[in-house]
Amino acid sequence: MRYVAGRACWSLVVAACLTVPAAGLEDFVEVSVVGEGISKDVARHDALRKALEQGGGIEISSRSNVDNYELIRDTVYARADGIVTDYRILDQGEMAGGTWYCKIIARVSKIAIASTWGEVQNVLDQIGRPGIAVYIQERIDGIIQDSSILESQIEHRLLDAGFVVHSGEQLRAVAEKESADAASEQNVARMQAIARDFGAQIFITGNAQADSAGVRTLAGQSTAMYNGDAMIKMYYTDTAELLASESLANWRGGARGHHTLSPQAGKKALENAGGELVERCYQNVMKRWATRVSGGGELTLEVEGMSLVDAIKLKKKLKAIDPDKIRNVDYSMTKGIARFRIKAKMTAEALAEHLVEDQFADLIEIVDLKTNRIQAKRVGN
Q1: pLDDT digit string (tens) for 144-158?
Q2: Cβ(351)–Cβ(374) under 8 Å?
Q3: 3.30.40, 2.60.40, 1.10.287, 3.40.50: which CATH number matches 131-293?
Q4: Is the pTM of the predicted complex or chain greater than 0.90?
Q5: Poorest-confidence range of 13-22, 156-165, 261-270?
Q6: How many CB atoms lie within 10 A of CB 237?
Q7: Residue 206, CB-side half-sphere exposure with 13 Å CA sphere
């Protein structure tokens, strides 16, 4: 088979379909698509995702009756770079506004989709659905709002995809009980700690502002206009590692009204601006989740009262639990506390079940268990 170059090929969505009679899953579908994005790499990834969506759509939709279908499907799409490997770039470049396009022709393998789907479903069964906490500070004309429109949009997007979501309202309620100021920027670290206590692996936080920009006449109607900006950051709750940062600046919006200061117009402006930023946030979540599925999530084991010799012994025992599920073990020592960072395709609870077995009984005793963290102490001599 040879690829067909030229502009005429872009009038086709599905250019060819090859069938191997001996095994239906070994079919290839050839598609031609155009991806777009804020950079050359993002546009290429978008093209690969579209190729996977179009070429493997029937194969994927045939599994729509399985549990966690949306989460598995979007995880497969997020791994498009590793699935669609047989492709060629026909054209790419910058467009108006600084965005990029990328035209490709690609062959999508059904057997690769089936294999990836099975792997993702298996890992999901082992480590469970990831928990995500969302906390966004929102201001209109400098006044902090009791609830956040952007926060709500992100929560709904993640819920629809099948994630376990802990809302900003939950975090605020706990903060109030602790007499903490949920609106204080200096208190974001405390909100992250609360998110971790809820069992969330990922913490999404940020801020959004909408400020009055006067009144204009649009289509014969007086319209209160607002300018705004927003920023979102994503962290692992256990390690505070920054995973992604997205921003949206200098957007405008408004609603009908004769007054310069219009909270309703400010809310409408925030709602209108949220779509693009929410989708960027979601794609970042999916990339991180897909990486976790590929290499395993990170668990932390902290053991108090360990010597260097003890730590080395424990590291060897941890790696021997299950080489297929324990991918890597690193450790560090600080004032008698050994911290093990474990790349594993299992939950902390599943790991804890191994750590209470006889082979570990002479070394450690578990004293606390969180979603991604186990705390223990050295026992014996």
Answers
A1: 888 888 889 899 988
A2: yes
A3: 3.40.50
A4: no
A5: 13-22
A6: 25
A7: 27
